[in-house]
Model the fold of this input.
Amino acid sequence: MSFDETTRLAQQKGFFFKSADSYPNSPAGFVDYGPLGVALRNKFVELWRRLIVKSDGMLEVDGAQILPRGVFEASGHLASFTDPFVRCAKCGSVFRPDKLIEEKAKHPVPEKLGDSDYDAMMEKEGVRCLKCGSKLSGTSRFNMMFKVGIGPGAEEAYLRPETCQSIFVDFPLLFKTQRVKLPVGIAQVGRSFRNEIAPRQSLLRLRELNQAEAEVFFNPAKTDHPRFLWSKEEVLSFKLPDGKDVKLRVEDAIAQGIVPNALAGHYLALLIRFYEAAGLSRDRLRLRVLNDEDRAFYSKAAFDLEVNLSVGWLELVACNYRGDYDLSRHAQVSGTDFQVLDGDQKVLPNVFELSMGVDRSVYSVIESGIRMDGDRRVMGLKPYLAPFAACIFPLVNKDGIDDAAMKLFDELKGSADVYYDDSGSIGRRYARADEVGTPFCVTLDYDTLKDGTVTIRSRDTRAQERIAMDTVEETILSATKFPRP
Ligand SMILES: [Zn+2]
Done:
C-alpha cells in the first residue's frame, strides 16, 4: 500500500486524520487520532513499556511539557535547534532548501551545511519556488521551538521539543530517591513540539508529536551489560557510512568497531526485537550508522533504526551515544551536582539514548500490516496491537439472537476490547473487521439459543470453530495477550 492509500484508509476507518480539518487553511503538521488510532497507539506504547522499559528494569517518568529557558540553554536547543529555510522573494512561500535540493537532485544533502552552501546548491540544481517558479536564494535559520510566556509577565519558556530533557534534569533526584544503581534506564512517553518549517507527510513529520524515549545512564568505565548474554548473539543489519549493507552478530559488530560496546549493542538488539514483536519483519529493518558529519558534535556514535516502507527507508528511532554532554551541561547551567556514586566511585554518567517516534511507528505498523488476500483487504496487526480483539455479531436481528448477542457484548466489554456489529451481511461484517485488523469475529445464531455455542472465526486463517459461549472471554483474552519479553 502506498503512503497515500494507507493514509486514506487510516482516515476512513478512524485511525488518524488531519487536525481541525473542517477549517480551511488549518496548519499542516497536526493530526488527531480517532478511536482506532488511540487504541492502536496505546497498545503500541504498552508493548514498548513491557518489552523495553519493564523488561530492562527502567524507571518511567512523565515530565512537564513546558520547561524554563535555562533547560534549553543547557541542552543547546536555544542556540542550535534550527532548520534552514528560504522564503520566495516573489510570492512569500517558505521552503526547506535541503528538501528542495534533495527532490531535485535525487540524492541526500548533508545535514550540517552553511546557509550559503544551500544557496549555491539551489543555484547549481536550478531549484525554483514550487508555487510561482521564481528563483530562490537567501537561506536563513529558524528555531523550531514553540515559545510560550508563563504568567502575566510572560516569563520565557518553551514547549519541549523532545521528551528527554526532563529525564536528564530529574536524574539526580530519581537516582537518589528510587535507590537504583548504574547502569539504569529512565524512560518517558509523551508529546513534543517542533515548529517544523514545511511539514508535508501527515504522521511522518508533525509539529506536535508523540515520542517514547529511553535514556540509559552508565559509568563510562563500565560499558558491559548484565543482559548481554542473549543480545550478543542477535544478528542485525547495518547500513555503513560507506553505503555497504552488512549483517552481523552484535558481538562481531562490536569487534569490528561498528557498535561501540556491549551496552549499546544490547539496546540495539532489544529495539530490533521490539519492532519485530510490533509486526515489522526483521528483513525490513536496519540500523544506519551515522558518519561524523551527520552526528551531533557531542555524539560518540549514532544509529538510526530505519524501516523499509512505501516511502523508502524511514527513521523510527534515533540511537545516540551522547557521552556526558547532557548531564555536564545541566550541571553547568543549573549549578546542581549531577554526579552520582557507582560503588564508592563518584561519576558523571554517560548516556545511551533510544529516541523513538511513536507516530511514525504507528504508521509503519499500519502500512506493513495491510495485505491483500484475493480481493479481501486485511490489516494483519499482531493480535495484541489490534484496536479490537473481537467483534460480536448476531446472525439476524430477531428471535432473541440479537438480545443474546447484546448480552454477551455487555458482559465482555469491560474486560476485552470488543465491538458490536449487526448491520449488513455476515460477509460484509467480516470484511469490515478484517480491514481494521480485528483478529476474531464471534457470531451468535439459532444454535446458540439451543446449546449455548457460538462460531468464532479467525482473521488470519478464516477458519471457523464452534465453541461454548462461556469460553469466549477466555479465548479472546488469551489469544490477544502481550508476548513475554
Ligand atoms: Zn514563489
The first strand starts at residue 16 and ends at 18. The chain has a mean pLDDT of 95.
